[in-house]
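anyone seen this seq b4? input:
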Amino acid sequence: MLKRKGFTFIEIMIVIVIIAIMATVMGISMSAFNAKIKAAPFSHYLKRTFELIEERAILEQNEFGICVHKQGIQLYRYNQVRSFWQLIRDSTDLKSIVFPDTLSFELNIDNQKINLTDKCVKPNILFNDGGFITPFELIIKEKSNTLVLTGEYGGGFYVKQKS
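predicted toks r here
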């Protein structure tokens, strides 16, 4: 009697179908997860992004800027040769951020509410090469939860629950 080694075509097809079903279920659950982004994790993500920008400004000895608008945040680097703000597009670690639809945002700079526009013309929060930033409060709201991401003049960011 001859014994065969390996798998039959049917066995391989069954495994592929099972993997496809699992991948579909994962994809559906991940898209549902993305639609339900919560304010707390997103505010901490923004905090870490702002800390990274602050560090880059100091390390590169260059000014960086953030423009907060209705749909998200765009990141800029000051071009010292040409004297203008250049949108960062090609960075691996600094990318523009799109706000989730499940959250709403407000921006206060120097205790004044800023009207968020549809497009950015120039940054409204600046990071200079000495570690100083434009003081701001970014208010992040979901249905029953409001958080405030604060950036202080001398550097440093923190997130707190708004009462």
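The chain has a mean pLDDT of 86. The CA atoms of residues 18 and 29 lie 17 Å apart. kinda curious what u guys think
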